[in-house]
């Protein structure tokens, strides 16, 4: 088998069938079908369960699919690696970013990195931690910046920084004069939280459960700056990382929560056994020194 056959097979799986793969690749369907059959003949086992109406991989097909993606990633990055060895700092990095992090600081660091390596390009995708992990597992992005810890059997990680989670509310709120609150004192408050894709949501709900209540959630969002608008309209309270709290305007008060669980840690994660390009490794080293 060769690279072309493997790329046809991966496209069939990604597109959900040979017809769609044929359209995507602009290649006749019989050519793709023959490539798949040739692979199966060489391996001596089927890759697809043809007893099903929909496309379904066999166990062998699933293993072969994952290995094909790894081989194709290595193959596609080979020219970049060769150029890097020759001192030509080029490449492309796809980064998943937590929507609950200080983007201003991140962009500043990215700008510094770009001055050193102006030929490297980027794809930046903002999401919740659970989606970032899913994108990494499916090889849709190279690295992610998200909440630690992560599943060590699936991902490698490097910690970047820790910070407190603070109660944030409108300065006219009845708790605004307080310097510290207990989690249980928030039992009757309306909460503005991130959606279920965010581990921060899980952490807050778990802390509330331990304090004896389930938070009354009046709104779930995916962008922290929307919380600012909702707080300004007196729609409730929220809990945010200290880095984000510092970016809010003077209309809001932030209060320490007397709960050891109200901390979190951000880090860089990537899929185990995934090939990381020279550019990606350089970026991880550079960022970990500055955050």
Report on the architecture of this protein:
- Helix content is 43%, strand content 25%.
- It contains ten helices and ten strands.
- By secondary structure, the chain is an alpha/beta fold.
- β1, α5 and β2 form a beta-alpha-beta unit.
- It is elongated and about 75 Å long.
- The strands form two sheets. Strands 1, 2, 3, 4, 5, 8, 9 and 10 form an eight-stranded mixed β-sheet that branches. A two-stranded parallel ribbon has the order 6-7.
- α1 packs across α2 and α1 crosses α3.
- The chain has three domains: 79 residues, Orthogonal Bundle (Arc Repressor Mutant, subunit A); 97 residues, 3-Layer(aba) Sandwich (D-Maltodextrin-Binding Protein, domain 2), CATH 3.40.190.10; 99 residues, D-Maltodextrin-Binding Protein, domain 2 (3-Layer(aba) Sandwich).
Determine the structural class based on helices, strands and strand pairing. Answer: alpha/beta
- Element-level helix/strand string: HHHHEHEHEEEEHEHEHEEH
Count of spatially separate domains: 3
Number of strands: 10
- Helical content stands at 40-55%
> Strand-residue fraction?
15-25%
What is the terminal-to-terminal distance? 45 Å
Q: Give the uncertain stretches in residue-range form.
A: none
CATH superfamily annotation of the largest domain: Periplasmic binding protein-like II
GO cellular component, one term: cytosol
GO molecular function, one term: DNA binding
Domain HTH lysR-type: 1-58
Keywords: DNA-binding, Transcription, Transcription regulation
